[in-house]
Amino acid sequence: MKNIINDKRIENILSSFKPNESMSLSVSEKKDMLKSVFDRVDVSKEVVVEAVKSPFYTYKTYFTQYLRYSIPVLLIVFIGTQAAGVFTDRSRIALSDINEVKSNLEQLKRSNEIKSNLSKNQADIKEIKLNLASEDVAEKDVKTQILASQLSSRSREIRNQVAALISEDKITEAKKIALDLESALKADELYKVSTSVESEVFSAIDLRVDIERKEKNNISTSTEKEVEDRIIAAKKDILDFEKNASTTDIIVEAEKSIVVSEDHLKAGDIENAVISLQSYDRIVADLRVILLP
Amino acid sequence: MKEDIMFNTNTALKSLSKSEFNSHFENIYNEHIDQLYRFTYFRVSDKDKAIDIVQDVYFKYFKYLTDSLENEGEIDFNHKAFLFKTIRNTIIDHYRKKQSQSLDELVDAGYEYSSDEDVSHNTSIDIDYKEVLKSLKSLDLDAQELVYMRFIEGLSLTDISEITGQKENTIAVKIHRILEKLKQRYEKHY
Q: Which of A121, B29, B57, B136 is 20 to 30 A from residue A259's alpha carbon, by CA?
């Protein structure tokens, strides 16, 4: 006999799941947690006070003056030239939008340029770190502060460029760059010691999550073919990773995501196929950072 | 909402002493801590990790409050939605490192069926409950999360909309579809 259950009954059953006692925090645990939050707030304030008192601002030597004034100017010039490059490229894309082939080529070129900017930024930061490490003058806090500020401002710049891509509905390119940025920031040791870099990581995560949501909501008739192509490309990438990487666990995880995506695709569940591919993309972005020289 | 009245209608917030501000913060903390902890524990299935995540989010929330006051002179946002959204993003980050999805086991995560109807003496209710739970486990992560927020924590569509960044209508349609799916999967077993 077929048993029929109505919607209301299901709602009632779902609403009846209640946390048991093991799911509650005790009063003392809650108090301890609150105390830790306040302690952390106090510590973060102390760090700011210490930074203000740093010798970097009190002792005026050629080196500190160079760091204070020349580097910001160079940075502004650097960001300015990057922005100019992006605007020029945007105009180029607009002009070359005569046919789809041309447009696609420009799009590929532009996202490659942003990617190379990302690598260039990473290389620059690495160089600054090396230079600062060799200087005895600057104290550790000052070095951290300088690096964190450079890293954060460059990250903001990349995020702006990604936002420009999103506004043009270039979701795939935007997602690749956002994932690379997020993985690069997380791989940096400043992530654990600098609140500004930490907050940049969270902004990058927010950005990536928004892009993924957009991608998931943009499912159309052409998505199935796109998912098929992405799975084929992903399988090729996995073969390359297997040749070059020793981190087999991560590769196995990436492979699993492809298999799950393929299964969903076969079952006609495009949305879940896309979600599994998003999981693959995240794993691969981390893997690429690990493989960086 | 209680906490909004607390922060939004007080025009002299900037002149609050540190202890007064902390006391406001503590009220909001106490108002949401249980719900946020349950949501996090439900997703990560690890008490220490859940406590770490919730503490971290409250720290960010405190900073956000003080920064908003400093820069804009007022605090005008949905606190509950902000906290849930931040928790959600932090958990997503956690899943990037740990791919297993602990959402599967409602009961293992510390939830039990609790109704006025006595399950132990009513076989048909017991079967309904088990079948719905089984169907729930087969849903994707997003769908499970929607069910959790809407039915188990009883969040409003407006709150869920702010947390997930989707329109209220979209959420309502999705929930309707999920219920339909649950219903179909349940009926398939009979």
A: B136
